[in-house]
Design goal:
The protein has 118 residues and is mostly beta strands. The chain is 0% helix and 51% strand. The strands form 2 sheets. Strands 2, 4, 5, 6, 9, 10 and 11 form a 7-stranded mixed β-sheet that branches. It has a 4-stranded antiparallel β-sheet with strand order 1-3-8-7, with no helix packed on it. The N and C termini lie far apart (37 Å).
């Protein structure tokens, strides 16, 4: 199993970024996926969820209305479109595979850094 995030960077407040997660080594379309973020000194914060088919999504209140999760099962890719970015969105963003057995996450990528600063 491999999850590789990309698309992070530095952006000014109010700007946009699109994160991607390339999945390999498993049947991507069979797993729910999530984005999770972490800042130094804090625990992981769940950001967004998408089900296997992409028809059901959910968002943390802190990002609702600004972020959009999507997936392309034909290309084994997960995305997170982030708009109206705020300094508090600064974090290392991970894509995570949903665990069938525990309901948590069983695999994570290495993360991509998002920094929102003027």
């Amino acid at each position: 199993v491999q999850l590789v995030e990309s698309g992070g960077g530095m952006v000014q407040p109010g700007g946009s970024l699109r994160l991607s997660c390339a999945a390999s080594g498993f049947t991507f379309s069979s797993y729910h996926m999530s984005w999770v973020r972490q800042t130094p000194g804090k625990g992981p914060e769940w950001v967004s969820f998408i089900n296997t088919g992409g028809g059901s999504t959910n968002y943390a209140d802190s990002v609702k209305g600004r972020f959009t999760i999507s997936r392309d099962n034909a290309k084994n890719t997960l995305h997170l479109q982030m708009s109206s970015l705020k300094p508090e969105d600064t974090a290392l963003y991970y894509c995570a595979r949903g665990s069938v057995s525990t309901g948590g996450y069983d695999y994570w990528g290495q993360g991509t850094q998002v920094t929102v600063s003027s």
